[in-house]
Amino acid sequence: MSDNKEKKEYRYGKEGKTITFVDDDKRHGDLRIRLRHDGITQIQFFQRMITGYLNNDERIIDYLTEYKYELGRHGKRRIAKSRRAIREGEELFGIFDLSPEEKQGLFDMIAKEMIE
Q: Does the model's pTM come out above 0.85?
């Protein structure tokens, strides 16, 4: 039966993915109000935050570092080591003067290799 149907080819990096999580209705309502006030959608907000996180935006990394301290799951030494690694990685990219698209392409190639 599966022979009659063509198998859809997966296109890495081109397929849409859904990211969901559950929060209480009060926080959801507050978020919607703030977003409407700022003139952005939930999709725009979350995509931008994820982009900042993936690109190691210092403002987001600083905020999350504070949260990691609060959680107490990672020791201060480990957190400091991670921060140093991020800075060193950014300096390395600076040496090669890669565009954001080239950086993303590099990360995509690495991810693809890890999957195979």
A: no
